[in-house]
Amino acid sequence: MPTEKEFQIAPIVPESVMHNTKALSNLQNLTASIFGAAAGILGLESYSGFLFYFVFTIFTTALFYAIRVAPTSLKAGHTVLDTSRYFRSSYEFWSGGLLGGLAGYILTWTLFYGLVRA
Amino acid sequence: MTWLSKGTTAFGLVLLTHACYSAHEHSALQSHRAASLSSLASAQSSAVSSLPIDITIETIVATLIVCLGLVSGTSQLRPIQWRVWAGKIEREGEAGFRNSSGEVDKDYVGNPFRLLESRPGFIDIRKQRREFATWVKGRPTGT
User: Which residues span the membrane (chain A) (predicted)?
Assistant: First the structure.
């Protein structure tokens, strides 16, 4: 955990933090709905549905890392899978969307499950 | 760039819709067949067969394509550390803060050190005097 002194020495830009977090959470909310539709079409039930969600959300985050974060971050000298150039903690980046999109996922999952198996 | 990501997303959504319709038709056909079979009083209740493999593959591929389209449509990230962020503005200017359709972002604030650039205390007055002197001397005489 960075201390007050470190924030004084290396200040961070709150607008940029908000912009990046908003971009990531928007993406995760949108894709969670799409995953719900796919899970409903596939007819997944109980644990396999949640497993599907976790696998695809982590895949999306990895894709986001590969397309948006990695090209500039690696060039700036960060190591692989280090997101400190754009996000305050890597925990927030890698697992922040898991719970955020779960409600939308379950909504569209049940909807499409009911639609397809009418 | 923007039409590429939007086109990918739209293509994936079309595939997903098609998969959804196929799955719906399949389940309707299954229930119809089961009903007709049970009216014939056949002992074997046809087990609820799972989805055909082609619909499964189509759904997963469509999901991956939509995912790719949405990710490539996100806006550029900004560095959160002040020195990295200010250095990027200094080096690239507005070009580093365009969104996917090529316009400058609305909340682009410009150089955070603008005020320092125009402080009168930092004017090099001797240099300006020298320039003025050369300009005066360089004038053609007799005017």
Answer: 50-70, 91-116
